[in-house]
Amino acid sequence: KKEGLALAVDLGASGGKLFVGELKDGKAEIHPVHKFKNKIVLAQGRAYWDFLRIFDEIKMGYALAQREFSGQITSIAIDSWCNDYALISEHGTMIGTPRNYRDSRTFGWIERSFEMMPQYEVYKRTGQQFQRFETSYHLLAEKEQDPDILGIAKELIFIPDYLSHLLGAKKYSEYTIASVSNLYNLVENKWDEDILKAYGLPREIFMPIVYAGDKVGEIAKDVTDELQVPSAEIYAVGSHDTASAVVAAPAEDDEEFIFISSGTWSLVGAELRNNIMTEESMKLGFGNEGGVMRRNRYICNVMGLWIIQECVRMWNLQGKDYDFAGLAEEASKVTTCDTVFIDPDDSRLFEPANMPEVVAQMAREHGYAPQNDFEIVRIVTQSLACKYRYVIDNIEYLTGKKFPCLHIIGGGSQNTFLDQLTANYLHKPVKAGPADATGIGNILTQWIGRGILKGLKEARQVCAASCGIKTYQPSSDETFEKNYHKFLHDIGKA
Ligand code: LRH
Known about the structure:
There is one protein chain. The chain has 19 helices and 21 strands. It is of the alpha/beta class and about 500 residues long. The strands form six sheets. It has a seven-stranded mixed beta sheet with strand order 17-18-16-15-19-20-21, sandwiched between helices. A hairpin with a 5-residue loop joins strand 17 and strand 18 (about 295-300). The protein binds 6-deoxy-beta-L-fructofuranose (LRH). 6-deoxy-beta-L-fructofuranose (LRH) binds near residues 263 and 265. One of its GO terms (biological process) is rhamnose catabolic process. Keywords: ATP-binding, Kinase, Nucleotide-binding, Rhamnose metabolism, Transferase. InterPro entries: ATPase_NBD, FGGY_C, FGGY_Carb_Kinase, FGGY_N, Rhamnulokinase.
């Protein structure tokens, strides 16, 4: 009998992945067992998730995994993007279909909320970045636009926690995902009653908190009967995918380090022991996200590979057949526009759109008309690398620390062109990998919860010993520094 087989369900905005983890001689063997696509579903201008299909894929993946591993998987945990939630009626039915965090209903709500409670008053409590897709703004919009729905809701459960509940777990909010709702008081470690009161939101719908590593239930009989496979224990891990990913950052020790969790978003941050909740930190756009084992992820969201994903979606609708690796390769050969930059965090890039045209328009505003698709990818990629440098300079300034290298984890770490450009602009070595950091972090956390690993330090040692990490050395070419200053000038930060 195999010991410790754990199944991770990792849901991202563009797809879900299931992995079985096996611990052998101090190394983690990670077996991908199921994969499916995920996307925004637009209906009458509203943006949703195809929620029940996601649940069904999880069930099918669980059955496949149990069959492949002869019914020996003994634990499962789910993580996903953050912010989005299901509302539950008094008798336990989901009300409606969960919205996608990019839904346009939150437009304007950041500013409107400051009239209910001033910005720094909120920051001193929640420590979060102010981004329009946060739970607080969705709830404010929901209350105004759909008061009946919030009126009958008895419970609010975040997406991964609700999926766990549908499998058989109790109802809860895991700490890392609660912490990024902008409604959770990080200092007092509880839902912030004053913010909820100021916003006119009901306190009763928010769930009790559990922590990553806690056992929260087991797969229910209706599910095992349907699937005809054995049950397994359900664990809470960092329900917020970024929290799980950072568990698998193969930092050499468990000291503080900088990272980019790179996927649809680029989460540029540092794992710290303390929170930084000063006004300056707020103004520079940093948030403090609750981490696994109560670490702090000091983070700034950069728009990330979403921009390229949206370009690819549009190009493929036009009948082109691009893949990410091929595009990055072609973009790396472009020599015509290496000093053309856009601000990847321009608000025009947030919602689904004809992205190649939006990027081209932004480039034209800086005096350059892109000639082809590869130039568009080149401009986005080098702008991302520069934005990373800008954020990391700010982290070093605000923490007063110098970090020797940068870890890039997540699917985006496979973009070798972006990895190398980041090293060049940052003048630091980049350690890229693991690509499946979130799934691996999810599994490592289950092992901590089950007492198989002692804690984060051991988890990271296992991860570093198991995953091939690729190092990119910075170039000594001085034009990168010169171009970086052009970037700062172009985005108005010079
Ligand atoms: C990444 C992520 C990120 C959030 C965003 C909404 O998947 O969880 O940390 O800010 O989705």
